[in-house]
Amino acid sequence: MRFLIPLVALTLAIPAQAQLVIAHRGASGERPEHTLAAYERAIDAGADFIEPDLVVTKDLVLVARHENELADSTDVASRAEFADRRRTKEIEGRRVSGWFAEDFTLAELRTLRAKERLGTLRPASARYDGLYQVPTFAEIVALVRAKEAETGRRVGLYPELKHPAFLLQQGIDVVDLLVAAVRKEGLDGKQAPLFIQSFEVAPLQRLDKLLDARLVQLVAADGGPADEPGMAYTDMITPSGLAAIAAYADAVGADTRLVVGANGAATPLVEQAKAAGLQVHAWTLRKENAFLPPALRRGTAEGGVGDYAAAWGILAAAGVDAVFTDDPALAVPLRRSARP
Q: Per the database record, which ranges form the GP-PDE domain (predicted)?
């Protein structure tokens, strides 16, 4: 949330509607993201959904990483045995150098260990560097089911397909892989606790034909879908654009800056999306000052904890249906009531 918020906005009351809490990459404010430890921490905190970003190994296994480039979130750069795997690739118009999941078999990936991506902001999380492997999607599903049996509470999955158009150019159909995994795990059906999200359009349109699942079109404050170079996200959230999204998706996953403007007031997005029959899921709420607007920061340290509760209240007052957060343990108590 990088918008400026007038002090008057801080007094907005949370409406009776209860927002879903989506654990963004797990409890990634407390543990290295996309690890079983982060997901379990989020479930124990009461999150409704956990969010694995999915990339693919060389031997076509779905695994959870924020990006297919591995250096930011694992210790691969320090592994001499993989020094020759360093590559430079063009992904969505950008040249990216590093080590990529699709160049590693699952067995090779298993030798890596996760690390905190935001170590300077989250030193407490960085203490867990080196402890956890990269999990597969199947392992994440197994964890969810084990925790459901332990707690008696339903826990949802909210996977994001990362760079599907790029991977398709490499000969990897991540949509087909996800469809097979969803069917194998018995998650096909609108009643299943599953949302599937993407910043691209064609993968969601394909999924709409292949699965009976709830789909989410992600939109950012800048740019547009990688598979639709002539399309801007800002055009997609106009009334006509939202109507087009509603033909294949059930919700819009929107950057918080598209939900609340720089003046602290709600934009028309929520109202217009709901008129089109779409839910609005806002991303991403974090507790650190570095991610909060000046009015909600506390102290001067970038990694210091700001007024998270006020930030939640502003999003809730805008009427969003769900909030992605790195800190589900802070979010869950802020809800008025639980939604089934």
A: 19-335
CA trace torsion 288, 289, 293, 299 (10° rounding): 140
How large is the average pLDDT for residues 33-54? 98
CB 104 within 8 A of CB 71: no
Is a pLDDT exceeding 50 seen at residue 159? yes
- Determine how many CB atoms are found less than 10 A away from the CB of residue 158: 26
CA-closest candidate to residue 33, choices 291, 327, 322: 327
- Tens digits of per-residue pLDDT, 195-247? 999 999 999 999 999 999 999 999 999 999 999 999 999 999 999 999 999 99
Residue 130, token pair as written in the block: 């080196």
Residues tagged active-site: 24, 66
Query: What is the pLDDT at residue 7?
Result: 33
Across the beta sheet with 322-325, the strand order is 62-64, 53-56, 160-161, 195-198, 214-219, 251-255, 279-285, 322-325, 20-24, 49-51, 156-157
How do the domains of the chain map onto residue ranges?
7-67+134-334
Provide the whole-model pTM.
0.93
Alpha helices, H only, the chain: 36-45, 106-109, 123-126, 137-151, 164-169, 174-184, 202-210, 233-236, 239-246, 256-259, 269-275, 308-317, 328-331
